[in-house]
Specification:
single chain, binds zinc ion, 350 residues, Rossmann fold, alpha/beta, six-stranded antiparallel β-sheet, 11 helices
């Protein structure tokens, strides 16, 4: 398996300067090969195609799963979108997803039993009501809804419970079968391959857009399958989170190499506008579980080793309770000031 995508560049120019905070910035200008006009993560900004980047954070490692490699977080100086660099090849990413993400990869452990029991209990509804809803699980409505990247259909079931004719879409046949066994309709294909006979009223991209190597195309495809006036619901980590500043390289939401784009409200709205959507809502929440995970990544990280403390239910639960009930003023303030950990955006098809 190819470990890293080859740099599709002829020349890389670097320059250094001090920013306003006295931090050394590395300005990287990447010159693409002449035959490569289309922007890609390695040749240009995914949002604007810009070719000049500054390195915001160097040497970021996978603090969750311990996969090998170090990555930089670089920002397009033109539009401000931050991206992971380098981006692994599609083949390498597919292998990592199959190893670490696929449904069935972890079965019947204490963690998964605890998680399933929690998610399908009334306690979870109560918890999301207190903690904040990072995946639109509390949003009621009607009409046809597609949950992209539905996995085993936990979220899809929530949307159905809230009044929608909810369907899922996922690449994982085994996970889709579990969702079907629960009575859901799940389509197994990519969004590009999906051509429904009846358009949808809502497309949910919950913790999906930051994973794709082409977020612009994903939104274009989402727009294609939406009815006139349909909405896209997006949730993803917020690049302006105060927890990012606090935890630095250990911020759980860098999630390299799986997270490729790191959005802010500004870059998300820019992308939405360019793909035919008008934003109508924007907010932040800071899930206590995310605070707990950043803290565990910071304290228990071991280079190149999966951080098993992230799956320690008692430790995670204790830190979640601490975050929610002791740190709540800071979490609340961060959310209202646009510095929460999770960005939620709703946009309507124009
Ligand atoms: Zn850009």
């Amino acid at each position: 398996m190819q470990e890293h995508q080859e740099h599709q560049v002829d020349q890389v120019h670097q320059d250094h300067q001090l920013n306003d905070d006295g931090v050394l910035e590395i300005i990287t200008a990447v010159a693409p090969r002449s035959e490569e006009r289309e922007p890609s993560p390695e040749t240009g900004c995914l949002l604007c195609g810009g070719l000049v980047f500054r390195t915001m954070l160097a040497g970021v490692e996978d603090t969750r799963l311990g996969t090998s490699g170090t990555y930089d977080i670089r920002q397009c100086v033109h539009c401000g979108l931050e991206q992971t660099s380098p981006v692994l090849s599609p083949e390498a990413l597919k292998g990592l997803y199959q190893k670490h993400y696929n449904f069935g990869g972890e079965k019947d452990t204490l963690y998964t039993r605890w998680r399933e029991r929690f998610f399908f209990s009334p306690c979870y509804r109560l918890w999301t009501w207190i903690d904040g809803d990072a995946a639109f699980y509390w949003r009621g409505g009607s009409g046809r809804l597609l949950d992209v990247g539905c996995n085993e259909g936990r979220g899809t079931r929530m949307y159905a419970r809230n009044g929608f004719q909810a369907e899922g879409l996922d690449l994982n046949e085994a996970a889709a079968q579990v969702a079907r066994d629960a009575g859901l309709t799940v389509h197994v294909c990519t969004l590009e391959e999906f051509h429904p006979e009846v358009p949808y009223d809502v497309v949910v991209l919950s913790h999906v857009l930051e994973h794709t190597g082409d977020p612009r195309q994903m939104l274009i495809e989402a727009r294609r399958i939406l009815a006139d006036g349909g909405q896209v619901w997006i949730s993803c980590p917020n690049g302006e989170s105060w927890l990012r500043r606090m935890f630095g390289r250990y911020w759980i939401n860098w999630h390299v190499p799986f997270h490729i784009s790191h959005f802010t409200a500004k870059t998300m709205f820019h992308l939405l506008a360019e793909t035919g959507f008008a934003p109508i809502e924007e907010s932040q929440v800071t899930p206590a579980s995310w605070v707990a995970q950043s803290f565990i990544a910071y304290v228990y990280d071991k280079k190149g080793v999966q951080n098993r403390q992230l799956r320690n239910p008692l430790r995670v639960a204790a830190l979640m309770l601490f975050a929610r009930f002791i740190l709540f003023p800071a979490l609340w303030l961060g959310n209202v000031r646009g510095r929460g950990d999770c960005l939620l955006a709703v946009a309507v098809k124009t």
